[in-house]
Amino acid sequence: MFKFLSHKLLNKKWLNACLLLGIVLLVAVASCNPMFKNGALDMLMSSKFDAAMTEQNKYPSTIGREGSCAVDEYPDSESVLNRIEKYKKMWNYYLEIDTIEEQTSLSLEAGYTQSNLGHRSNFKMVYMPNLEDHINITYGVSLEDAKTESGVYPCLISQRYLDEYNLVVGEVFTIDTGLGDVKDASGNPMKYQIVGVFEEKDYSDDFWYDQLADLDRQVYVKQSDFDEMITKYGFLTIYYSEHDMLDYSQITHANAADTLYYIKSFESSDKSFTQNFSNVLIDYRGDARTIGIIIWVLELPILVLLLAFIYMVSSQILEMEDGEIAMLKSRGTSTKQVLGIYLGQSAILSVIAIIIGIPVGYLLCKMAASASSFLKFEFKDTHFYGIDPWMVVYSLAAALIAILFVTLPVMKYAKNSIVEQKSRTGKVNYKPFWEKFFVDVILVVLSIYLLYNYNKQKSTIALDILSGKRPDPVIFLNSSLFIFAVGLLVLRLIKYLIRLIYRIGKKRWSPAVYASFLQITRTVKKQGFISVFLVMTIAMGMFNSNMARTINDNKTKRINYNLGTDLVVQEQWTRGTYIDKKKKTHWYYTEGDFERYTKLEGSVCDKVTRVIYDDDAVIKAGGEELAGSVLMGINTKEFGETARLQSGLNKEHWYNYLNDLAEVSNGVIISSNLAKKYNIKVGDSINYARYSPMKGKEKEEIASPSGTVCAIVDAFPGFQQYVYQKNSDGEMEEVERYLVVANYAYVVSAFSQTPYQVWMRLADGKSYKDALRAIDAEDINIVQYDSLDKDIKEMQESPLVLITNGLFSLSFIIAIILCMVGFLIYWITSIKQRELMFGIYRAMGMSMHEINKMLINEQIFSSVLASLAGYGVGVAATILFVKLVAVVYLPEAHNIAISIAVDPYDLIKLTAVVIFMFIVCFIVIRTILKKMNITQALKLGED
Questions:
Q1: How far, in Å, CA of 807 to CA of 25, rounded?
Q2: Is residue 111 classed as helix, strand or coil in its secondary structure?
C-alpha cells in the first residue's frame, strides 16, 4: 500500500511538492506560535521589571519583612537574624527563585542626643550585615580601625546626613537621659562618636535596595557594639528590615501566575511582609492577554491563506485525477477505500511536513523576533525565544487540519463512476453559493458597519487599552474580513466587466481573442479562486506593510517630540538646609559648574543648554489654580539650537515664539489649551508658582511671579499635553496638562536656583553612549538620563511592536511565496489540461503567435485585473482601517495625531514581485507550449 501511495505521489511530483510546501508552511507558522508567544511574554516580563527599576530607582523584584522583636525573646542581633532566616527559607520554598542580594538592617531607637559641638539630633543605631563590602569611606576610618574613648561607641554616617546636619567627623553624641531610659546600670548615658563618613561603592549595586539618601537619620555600628548596647543600656525592642532581591530573570510566563499567587498569600497571612513587584505581575497579566490575542489575530490571516493555498492545490490535483477516481469506482473500489487512498497520501505529506515544519517554524520565529521594523531584520539577541514542547502539539493540530482540507474535497469525487463523471464534464458553470446569495455584499456591509462602530468608540477603546484590558480581536480581524469580502465583490464585478466587453466586441474579435474570452467566461469559477487569492495577497501585503510603517513612524515621532532633543541628563545635586533665628527651615541647592558640559561642545555634541523642567507647577488663571502643570525655564537662543520640533505642529515656525519670549524678561509662552480654557490672548498676564522641595504635610509655594503672554503654541519640545492616571475607582482617566515657558534667568530669580536638566544635541556620528562616557570623564554624577536613540531602540524591541513587525513581515513574505507558487500552479495545470484544445485550435489554422496572444489576453482580463484590484483594495483597507488598528498600539492622546505612513519602497517591492511573477509565469507557459507534443495534439484535434 505504501509503495502504491508513493508511486501515486511521485506521479504528480511537482503538484504534490507544492502541496507539501503549503503543509510545511502551515505547520511552521502554527508551531512557531507557542515559541513566539512565550518568548514575547518572557521579553515582556523582563521589560516590565526593567521599566519598574527605572521608574522606582530600586531593584524591582524584592520581598522582605519589616517588624520588631522583643529583647526578652530575642536578646541579641544573631537571634533576630535567625528569625529572619526562617522567614526567608519559607519564601524560598514556595517561590523557588534565587536571591541575588539581600539588605538586612537591625536598629535601635536611641532617642535625642546632644553633641559636644552643640548639635541636637535624633539618630537610630543600626547594624547592617556586610555593609563594609558595599561602601567607600570618604573621610575618617572604618569601624574596625576606629579608636575611641572607653564607653564611646564608634559609628559611621552617610555623606548626605553629615552635610545636611552640618556634622563633623570626631563629634561625640550623648543620649539625652531626660527624655528616655537609655543608660546603663550606673545611670550613665550612652555615647557614640562619628569616626567615618561613607557613600555607596556603586550606585547600581543591587545591595542598595534602600539608597542611603532614603535611609533617614541612621548611624551605623558593628555587630559586637550593637549587641553590647542592647544588654548594657536596657533596650526593649530590636527593629528590623529585610529586603531580598530576587533574580527576576527566573520569573517567566510559566511561573508568573504562581509567583503572584504566593506573593498575595504571604501578604494576606503576614501583615509585616513587604514586596514591590505584585503590580508588575498584575500589569504583565493584562498585557499578556493582549499579546496572546494579537499574535493569534495577526497569524490567523496567514493560516487562512495557507489553508486556502492547500485547498487550491489539492483541488487542482483532484480535478486532474477525476477520471482516475471514476475509473477506480467503476472497477468496484468503495468510497471509503478511495478516501483511504487520499487520506494515506495526505498523512504521508503531513508526517514529512511535521519533520520539516518544526525546524522551519523555529527559524521563522527567530527571524520574526529579530525584526527591528517591517521587512528589516537584524542579528540580535533572541535568547527569550527557545524550543517549546507545545510546538509539537500545535504542529500535530496543523497537520490534522491540513489532512482534512486535502481529504474532505475527495468526497464529491469519490461518489462518481465513469458515466457520472462524463455526464458532469462540460456542464455549464453554475453560480457558487456566495455569488447566488450575495455573501460578498453582506460581508462588505458588515465590515463597514463594524468599522463605523469602532470609530465611534475610539476614545473608549484607547482607555481600555491603557487600563490593561485586552483589545477586541474583531478590531484586527475586521480589516481581513474587509479585504476578503471586497475581493469577492471585485471578482463579481470583474466577471460582469468581462461579460460586457465580450458582448460588445464578440462579433469583431479575432479568433484568438474570441477564444480567450470564451475560455474566461467558461472557467470563471476556476479562475475565481486564484483571482481572490491574488486580491487578498496583494491587499494584505499592502495593508500589513502600511500598518507596520504607521506604527513605527508614529511611535518614533512621538518619542522624538516627547524628549525634544537627542539626550537629556539630570545631575545629582546637593541640597542643604539651615534654620534661621525664627526656627524656620530654609533650603538651598549647590549648583555644579555648567562649563563641564559646554566643554563637550564641538566633540560629542553640537550644543547643550540648561532647562528647568517642573511638571508639578501651578498656573493661576481665571481665578483658578491648575496644579500638575508644566513649567519650563529656558535660554531661548541655546534652546532653539539644542531642541527640535516637527514642522507643521504650530501655525508658524516655533523659532518665532522663542524670539518673542527673548524680548520680554518676564514673558511666557503658554499652551493653546490654556489660552482656550481661559480666553487668554497675547499681552495678557498670568501667574505661576512652584512648590518647596522640602517634604511636609502640605505643599508650600516658593513664589508666584507673574508673566506676560508673548506667544501661544499648540506644541513645544518636551511638552506632553496628555497624561494618564487611575482615578479613585481604579479606572484609567485622561488628564490634560497645561504649559508655561519662561526665561531661565527669570525663573531662577523668582524661585532660587534649583536642579535643572541638561539638554544635548549630539554631533554627527556620536551616540548617547559617547556622550555619557564624556560626561563621566568630567566626574559628573548623572542620576537619570533619557536618550532619543535608546528610547527608539527600546520601542523597536518592545514585545508588542516586535510582534507586529515580525508577524507582518512574515505574513508578507509567506503571502508572496504562496501567490507566486499558487499562480504558477493554476496556469501550468490549466495549460496542461487544455493540451487537446490547443491541438484543435492549431488544426483549425491558428498560429502559435495567436495562441500566445490568446493566453496574454486571458492573463490581462483575469490575473492582471485581479492584481490591480488587489492594489485598490489594499489602498482602501489602509485608508479605512490603519488609524483604527493603530489605536491599540498608540492609545495615548498626543500633540502629534496618528498619521498614515506609506513607504514607496514597500509598494515597489510588492510590484516587483508581482511583475516578476507574471514574467516567470509567461516564460514557464511558453516553455510548456514549446515542449508540448503539438503534432500529437494536432492529430487529436483533426480526429
A1: 14
A2: strand
Residue 142 contacts residue 84 (beta carbons within 8 Å): no
Torsion of CA 611, 615, 618, 621, to 10 degrees: 80
The most distant pair of C-alpha atoms in the chain lies apart, rounded to whole Å, by 133
**Are the CB atoms for 315 and 528 separated by under 8 Å?**
no
911's torsion region: left (phi>0), alpha (psi -120 to 50) or beta? alpha
Q: Provide the 3-class DSSP secondary structure of residue 888.
A: helix
pLDDT value at residue 737 = 93
Q: Are 97 and 63 in contact (CB under 8 A)?
A: no
pLDDT of 202 above 90: no
Number of residues assigned to the chain: 943
Nearest CA to 352 out of 399, 408, 387 is that of: 399
pLDDT 10s digits, 83-110: 999 999 999 999 989 999 898 999 998 7
At residue 799 the predicted structure's pLDDT band, cuts being 50, 70 and 90, is confident
CA nearest 899: which of 910, 907, 890, 908? 890
- What secondary structure letter does DSSP report for 566? S
Distance CA 914, CA 905 (A): 14
| CB < 8 Å & 24+ apart, contacts of 771-778 | 771/567, 771/600, 771/604, 771/605, 772/569, 774/600, 774/603, 774/604, 775/569, 775/597, 775/600, 778/596, 778/597, 778/599, 778/600
Chain segment 777-787, per-residue pLDDT in tens: 888 888 888 99
**Is residue 615 within a helix (H) or strand (E), and if so which, with residue range?**
strand 605-621
C-alpha cell at 706: 507673574
More confident residue, 558 or 835: 558
SS3 of residue 455 by DSSP? helix
Residues above pLDDT 90, as percent of the chain: 32
What does the angle CA 540 – CA 545 – CA 549 come to, to the nearest 5 degrees?
150
Assign 663 a pLDDT band (cuts: 50, 70, 90): very high
Give whole-number Cα distances, 766 to 607, 758, 769, 791, in Å: 13, 17, 8, 16
> Distance between CA 407 and CA 410 in Å, rounded?
5
The predicted model scores a pTM of 0.78
Which residues 6+ apart lie within 8 Å of 80 measured at CB? 69, 74, 106, 238, 240
pLDDT at position 941? 47
Angstrom distances, CA of residue 658 to CA of 162, 527, 631, 682, 740? 43, 64, 15, 14, 13
Q: What is the mean pLDDT of residues 107-127?
A: 82
Is 938 a residue whose pLDDT tops 60? no
Q: Which residue has the cell 555593609?
A: 131
pLDDT at residue 680 in the model: 92
Evaluated on CA atoms 769, 772, 773, 774, the torsion sign reads: positive
Of 621, 712, 610, 714, the residue nearest 661 (C-alpha): 712
Q: How far apart are CA 752 and CA 145, in angstroms?
A: 43
Q: Are 526 and 316 in contact (CB under 8 A)?
A: no
Using an 8 Å Cβ cutoff, are 248 and 51 in contact? no
- What are 630's three cell numbers? 508644566
Determine the pLDDT at residue 385: 85
pLDDT digits (tens, 9 = 90+) for 4-21: 666 666 667 777 888 888
- The domains of the chain are located at 1-58+285-427, 59-275, 435-564+787-943, 586-780
DSSP string of 867-887, one letter each residue: HHHHHHHHHHHHHHHHHHHHH
Taking CA atoms, 311 is separated from 409, 606, 612, 832, 866, in Å, by 8, 61, 65, 20, 20
Lowest mean pLDDT segment, chosen from 318-332, 391-405, 527-541, 750-764: 318-332
Return d(Cα 354, Cα 349) in angstroms, integer: 9
157-175 tens-digit pLDDT: 988 777 777 788 888 888 8
